[in-house]
Design brief:
The complex is a heterodimer.
Chain A: H1 6-10, H2 26-34, H3 44-48, H4 53-63, E1 69-72, E2 79-82, H5 89-92, E3 99-105, H6 110-122, E4 125-127, E5 130-132, E6 136-140, H7 146-159, E7 163-166, H8 170-179, E8 186-190, H9 195-205, E9 209-212, H10 217-229, E10 235-238, H11 245-263, E11 274-275, H12 288-304, E12 309-312, H13 317-330, E13 344-347, E14 356-360, H14 363-374, E15 380-385, H15 392-398, H16 403-413, H17 417-420, E16 425-428, H18 436-443, E17 446-449, H19 457-464
Parallel strand pairs in A: 3-6, 3-12, 6-7, 7-8, 8-9, 9-10, 11-12, 14-15, 16-17
Antiparallel strand pairs in A: 1-2, 4-5, 13-15
Helix pairs in contact in A: 6-7, 7-8, 8-9, 12-13, 16-18
Chain B: E1 2-6, H1 7-13, E2 30-34, H2 44-67, H3 75-79, H4 85-88, E3 115-117, E4 131-133, E5 152-158, H5 166-169, H6 179-188, E6 194-198, H7 211-224, E7 229-232, H8 240-250, E8 257-261, H9 267-277, E9 280-284, H10 289-302, E10 310-313, H11 323-338, E11 349-350, H12 359-362, H13 377-395, E12 399-402, H14 405-419
Parallel strand pairs in B: 1-2, 5-6, 5-12, 6-7, 7-8, 8-9, 9-10, 11-12
Antiparallel strand pairs in B: 3-4
Helix pairs in contact in B: 6-7, 7-8, 8-9, 11-13, 13-14
Classes of the chains: A alpha/beta, B alpha/beta.
């Protein structure tokens, strides 16, 4: 983004405060544009009225992220990569989390290939109320045979997941494109030997393309610049991913330098970067568990430092689970806490004898308490009170967690302490102990103060539950 | 019968033939010449020839159409551009050379304090080596400035048998009743750079071991190994100052790391013991950069702890359980320090073992039916600890408190690779597409 204050964006808006965008003022809309929670297309006058056309174009140019955003795949599973504006996520947050593509080889038995693609497409891991997924399939042209490659592409395309075509042979890539014309696959890759042919393919089929130069940033920039001048917009950079030793250190350095140059305004190299943790499997690591570990380690390094898309091999759960979690971690907005729905949750199979607890709707607090309870087999009722996603201690101090709010939450959940349970007792977090008296008055219930840390709940329950009459 | 033919099809048809002009072309039925979408292997000379022929054809069609009263001039312009060889030629002709260059970060002006841990005989102690953490002038592993000191790993020892994840416990089961043997195993077998002895039995709610007795455990560990040690209390804010002061006394002159001073206990007592008996202080706060500044300031200004005796622990939350906050907190602290905030220019330490609190690291299988298979937990736990630690290494962490031997080995391998210490034979990655895996 070339601008960073709402005031600068405001200059390009109609300045009528018409409210059509849903904001009360153009200034409020301008700040949404700056933090990227709103788009220029959300402003109807700007889009519809001819007199604003020039301003709209200029504003779009100013608001475009420093790193180009590239779309791979088509339909609802299409993925976006790139689009970042900062080097450090706390400054703005990172957008478009690292996309993970897993490989298949075009010489695999058809049944095995289809099974693996389905496994990739069907992967999910529950996390903070959602599922973490894998993003696509990279088809390696091991055969180097256009016919075999096209056949593999056809099979993968049937599953409807974004694809990367991997070959340095233009005839092979062309064969793949012919059977998957409308799927918008990413072509891997144009290098110093084949760039003319691959570039022409990218132009002809209008697909994104990787330019590749191993450990040679001059050559990489040369390829990217040449392509851009020819009208290819959707470029991904592959500076080579060496799996071990000084090679890996060089790769890390290359990623940093490319992203820094892009963010600092060198538009000729401001494209998403591809990492290939896959090369861990070429490092001569004999034991597959160790190779998987090393691939995960490489994936972690490049998830944090600027890998926008990566090709991986191991589908072992111990490799993929930390990978998807880390991508989620690094691409979570650190400026606004993640919250869960404010409502009454059942942990295990609670009955009328089970304890009733409450905590905040800050996702981290909620899921920590929830897992502390469920992993210890404590059946109970757990109310998530809306504290605007703030943790217990800070919410008590800041007034987001009060006796009134707790009562409100019980009422909204339709949970009547006098009828739903037979003990009319509530357990408050230890960090909210000071609410005890107020809560007893408001709820008309007995309020017990739980431990400061939900990790101590099991021991606390042993001593304090069921409540003595 | 409409038969569509692309120009590129014609060119490939005539590929290899020295065609300069087309003569005697017979046209049957309708012909549509598509001049867009020129494929690879396109021959500009041939295109020019074809273009001229097309243009002539188009003129014929236009005249014919005119004769029959059809609108004229629709077909002709579509074909006309092909007359110009410049337009028909491929868009990619020559490489446009470019030089890559990017400047270093100018705002990084301040070096992180170097803090030594452990005194050798030359320093008046009995450690076989000393480790030094800190000293960075750039973010970790960044090319802007060399990193003078690599990351260090200290492996945990507890002063009593405790509950541990199965994958961890099986490595320590036979030494868990002897802190000295446990420490020895960590160093000799698992390559620990340091040992952390946690005096958790001193907690009034656990065994309430008196400080004096806990101090004996510290002596035992100091005798069992000659690496530097960190001394941890039980986390009980009432008891810890007394326990750590007593431990500091028996470890006088060894330059141990006292863990921890925090805002919710008598940090002054811990600071005083550190200065009096020649130790370092771990300044621990909970995911709050401003609290970290406050505590560091108090240690320096109120308690007069020298700068080279402070290491910070800004709290480690596990992967999937708040690592996003831990990561950002550390990265912000390190960036602020590099830009001159002298209340934050200290090396950092991470309780990486917190990763074992994540259910993904220890639970037998997912409690949720919808999840894809979690696989065997024996493999999940160590990588959870590795990824948690590695993320923080990249954010700026220097010292890692860890538990699983595999995690220690892999974390050391990757951090030392990024540090530049590890040389291997270069892999020919150009062959990755065809690799047999």
């Amino acid at each position: 983004m070339k601008i960073n204050s709402p005031l600068e964006a405001y200059k390009y808006l109609p300045q009528t405060n018409c409210g059509e965008c849903g904001e009360a003022t153009c200034m409020a809309f301008a700040s949404k544009l700056i933090d990227r929670s709103g788009k220029t297309s959300d402003c109807p006058p700007l889009v519809k009225e001819k007199k604003f056309a020039k301003k709209l174009a200029e504003l779009d140019r100013l608001l475009a992220p420093e790193i180009r955003q590239v779309t791979i795949g088509a339909g609802e599973k299409a993925v976006n990569i790139g689009g970042d504006d900062v080097l450090y996520r706390h400054k703005l947050t990172f957008f478009n989390k690292t996309k993970m593509f897993f490989d298949v080889a075009d010489n695999m038995e058809e049944a095995a290939l289809v099974a693996r693609v389905k496994q990739i497409a069907g992967y999910k891991k529950f996390y903070v109320g959602r599922n973490l997924l894998l993003d696509g399939v990279a088809i390696r042209a091991v055969s180097n045979d256009p016919v075999k490659f096209a056949a593999a592409v056809k099979k993968v395309a049937e599953v409807g997941i974004p694809m990367i075509f991997c070959s340095f042979n233009p005839a092979v890539l062309k064969a793949g494109l012919e059977v998957a014309k409308d799927k918008n696959p990413l072509l891997y890759a144009a290098n110093k030997d084949n760039w003319k042919e691959i570039g022409e393919l990218a132009l002809e089929y209008k697909v994104p393309v990787v330019v590749s130069a191993f450990n040679d940033l001059d050559a990489l920039k040369t390829l990217a610049k040449t392509f851009a001048e020819a009208g290819i917009k959707d470029i991904v950079l592959d500076p080579g991913t060496y799996p071990t030793g000084k090679g890996l250190k060089d790769t890390f350095t290359n990623f940093l330098k490319i992203r820094r140059a892009g963010i600092m305004g060198d538009t000729e190299i401001a494209y998403p970067i591809m990492a290939l943790p896959f090369t861990a499997w070429m490092a001569g690591i004999a034991d597959p568990v160790s190779a998987s570990y090393w691939e995960t380690v490489m994936a972690s390094v490049f998830t944090i430092r600027y890998g926008d898309i990566m090709i991986l091999h191991s589908m072992e759960p111990y490799a993929t689970m930390p990978e998807v979690h880390l991508a989620e971690t690094i691409y979570t907005d650190p400026r606004s806490p993640v919250a869960v729905d404010s409502k009454m949750y059942k942990v295990g199979n609670p009955t009328a004898d089970s304890p009733v607890l409450f905590t905040t709707n800050f996702a981290l607090t909620y899921y920590t308490v929830e897992s502390d309870l469920s992993s210890n087999g404590i059946d109970c009722w757990l109310l998530a009170v809306n504290t605007d996603g703030i943790g217990v201690e800070a919410a008590v101090a800041g007034g987001q967690l009060t006796a009134d709010k707790v009562k409100d939450a019980f009422d909204k959940a339709g949970f009547d302490l006098k009828t739903a349970v037979n003990h009319n007792t509530v357990i408050t977090p230890g960090l909210a102990a000071r609410l005890q008296g107020d809560l007893e008055d408001k709820l008309g219930a007995s309020v017990k103060v739980g431990p400061m840390d939900s990790g101590r709940l099991p021991g606390w329950m042993e001593k304090n539950w069921p409540p003595k009459k | 019968m409409a038969k569509k033919m692309k120009l590129s099809d014609l060119t490939s048809m005539f590929a290899g033939m020295d065609v300069e002009a087309l003569e005697g072309v017979t046209i049957e039925g309708d012909i549509e010449i598509d001049l867009g979408g020129l494929g690879g292997g396109f021959d500009p000379m041939l295109a020019a020839a074809l273009g001229q022929e097309s243009a002539i054809l188009a003129q014929h069609f236009a005249r014919l159409a005119g004769m029959f009263g059809y609108p004229v001039g629709i077909g002709a312009p579509a074909a006309a551009p092909a007359i110009s060889p410049a337009l028909a030629a491929p868009k990619l002709k020559d490489l446009i050379p470019a030089k890559f260059d990017v400047a270093n970060i100018a705002e990084w002006t301040t070096q992180i304090q170097e803090v030594p841990i452990g005194n050798t005989s030359a320093d008046g102690g009995s450690r076989g080596k000393r480790v030094v953490v800190g000293g960075e002038k750039a973010l970790p592993f960044f090319p802007d400035a060399p990193m003078p000191n690599r990351n260090q790993v200290t492996i945990d020892v507890f002063d009593m048998r405790i509950g541990l994840a199965k994958a961890v416990k099986e490595n320590y089961d036979e030494v868990m009743d002897s802190p000295g043997e446990w420490a020895k195993k960590n160093v000799e077998k698992f390559n620990a750079d340091m040992i952390t002895i946690h005096l958790i039995s001193t907690d009034p709610l656990i065994k309430d071991t008196p400080a004096k007795e806990a101090a004996k455990t510290v002596e035992e560990v100091l005798q069992a190994v000659d690496v530097p040690i960190a001394i941890g209390g039980s986390g009980n804010p009432q008891k810890d100052p007394e326990v750590l002061a007593r431990a500091a006394e028996v470890a006088e002159g060894e330059r141990c790391l006292l863990a921890s001073a925090s805002l919710n206990l008598d940090y002054a007592a811990i600071a005083e013991a550190a200065i009096k008996y020649d130790h370092d202080v771990l300044s621990w706060t909970q995911l709050d950069m401003n609290a970290q500044k406050e505590l560091n300031r108090k240690l320096m200004k109120q308690c007069n702890v020298p700068r080279d005796r402070i290491i910070m622990d800004p709290t480690t939350a596990a992967l999937g359980y708040g690592l996003d906050y831990a990561y950002t907190n550390m990265e912000r602290i390190r960036l602020a320090a590099l830009m001159g905030d002298d209340e934050l220019t200290f090396p950092m330490s991470s309780g990486t073992t917190n990763a074992w609190g994540a259910r993904e690291s220890w639970m037998v299988s997912s409690p949720l039916k919808e999840d894809s298979d979690w696989g065997p937990r024996e493999y999940r736990g160590p990588i959870w600890e590795i990824v948690t630690g590695l993320s923080l290494a990249i954010a700026g962490n220097d010292l890692f408190m860890m538990m699983h031997p595999t995690s220690v080995a892999v974390l050391k391998q990757i951090t030392q690779t990024l540090f530049g210490m590890i040389d291997t034979e270069q892999v020919d990655i150009a062959k990755w597409i065809g690799a047999e895996v």
